[in-house]
Design goal:
Blueprint: E1 3-9, H1 18-32, E2 41-47, E3 59-69, H2 74-98, E4 100-110, H3 121-124
Parallel strand pairs: 1-2, 3-4
Antiparallel strand pairs: 1-3
Length: 128
């Protein structure tokens, strides 16, 4: 963990390099040091139907949520929230000057007892 899920308005498809933003959030998650690399997931979903603010089609949004396995202190969660939000904010800094974009984030705990996990990613990592 963490699992990062982005949703973004389709009008940003040709404005923001969403794949690069996902990669930057992945790297920031690694840099946070709070989770093993094998547990990090970042994915994005385009939203084709949305209505923002005054309804003008020029407005766009990127909203991301971070799901994190329970057990971290509030201080750790606050630090991760700040690190990931700052990463996204810096990535979009130039875009904010030319486009109407709302950026938002939320971090949620995952109840470990209700979230089983398995897989083979660890055995295929170049560096464990």
């Amino acid at each position: 963990m963490p699992h990062v899920e982005l949703t973004y308005s389709s009008n940003l498809e040709d404005v923001v390099d969403i794949a690069a933003l996902c990669n930057q959030l992945r790297l920031a998650s690694i840099d946070s040091g709070i989770a093993p690399i094998a547990g990090i997931r970042v994915r994005a979903f385009r939203c084709d139907h949305y209505s923002i603010a005054d309804g003008d089609a020029k407005h766009g949004y990127i909203d991301f949520s971070v799901r994190l396995r329970e057990g971290r202190t509030d201080e750790v969660k606050q630090a991760l929230t700040a690190q990931l939000f700052n990463c996204a904010e810096q990535f979009l800094k130039e875009h904010f000057t030319e486009h109407s974009i709302a950026l938002s984030m939320e971090l949620r705990d995952i109840n470990a007892a209700l979230s089983p996990k398995t897989g083979s990613i660890r055995q295929f990592l170049a560096t464990p």
